[in-house]
Specification:
This protein has about 170 residues and is mostly helical. It has one domain. It contains 2 helices and no strands.
Amino acid sequence: MADLQAQADDLEEKRRALQRHAERAERERDLAAEQCEDAEADARRARAEAAPAVERFMEAEVLRNQLQASGDEVLRLKAEIAVCRGEVARGWPSVEAAEEAEAECREAVAEVESAHAREAARLQAAHDEELSELGATHAEALSELKAAKEEEVSSLQVAGAEELRSLRA
């Protein structure tokens, strides 16, 4: 009878230990799930923070396309100047009118080329600034994620070590 009582006590003690272990595992699971949710929230925040930069990049692409269109216009105007010079050489229309048209075309080409150069410089500066900002934001977010991962791994290692000690004890 005493042996049965001792076995019953031993089994009860094992049951309690296993129950504590199960409760601890559930708490750790809940903590890990919470940390996962936090990481997902951080990722959503990072995407939301990056959205304005992406929008600026898209605007820069639109401006770059406009700049390309301006470059095409410059080429068209240069071709028109060549046609005007041909007309002047043939004397049709009058030389004076052709010279005026040529001067206007040259002015228009100069203005478009000047605007083109200014726009290219502005777009390049905006692109460089945006690229720098995105790089810094990316590096910061990556650093934060690495730190969070290292912290989580460390806490899980500590918890695992504690659990091993408790199981060995």
